[in-house]
Amino acid sequence: MISTWSEWKRYPRPGRGENLEAPISPGIYEVRVAGTGALYSFGAVDNLAQALALLPVGSKSWFGRRDTSSVPDLEYRTCATSTKADAKAAAERMIGRRETYMSGAA
Fold first, then answer.
1. Which residues contact 14 (CB under 8 A, 6 or more apart)?
2. Chain center to CA of 10
3. What is the C-alpha to C-alpha distance for residues 94 and 73, in angstroms, rounded to an integer?
4. What b/e string do you get for 42-51 counting C-beta neighbours within 10 Å, with b at 16 or more?
């Protein structure tokens, strides 16, 4: 079973003490660049909160701190599912629809 998408939320910026709001369950996540809407990351995972928390954002400096100047302003949304298999199936349908739309638009 698939639920509905959450609202778009601002992705926490490194070093600001902001928190992610995501379920600890299987599902699909989508991360986009806020200013352009360009897709940054997408995936079907076992644990939405963990996957978003581990998303590579920015680069590490020599001193172990993240370089926040190169981090784009990101937004994310999630869609919880009952199982990872449901998440994968829903993600494949979404990818198929997106490819069909893009091939028709070209």
1. 57, 58, 66, 68, 71
2. 11
3. 24
4. ebbbebbbeb
Give me the domains of the chain, ranges plus CATH numbers.
9-105 (3.40.1440)
* pLDDT value, residue 18: 84
The Cα 76–Cα 45 span in angstroms is 15
Contact at 8 Å (CB) between 9 and 3?
no
Per-residue confidence (pLDDT) for residue 93, from 0 to 100:
86
- C-alpha to C-alpha distance for 91 and 103, rounded to whole angstroms: 18
- Per DSSP, helices labelled H in 1-106 are 48-53, 84-105
What residues contact 106, with CB distance under 8 A and at least 6 apart?
none
Q: Please report the beta strands in 3-73, taking only residues with DSSP state E, as ranges in sequence order.
A: 9-10, 27-33, 39-45, 59-60, 66-67
End-to-end CA distance of the chain: 33
Q: For the chain, which residues score pLDDT lower than 70?
A: 1-2, 58-71, 98-106
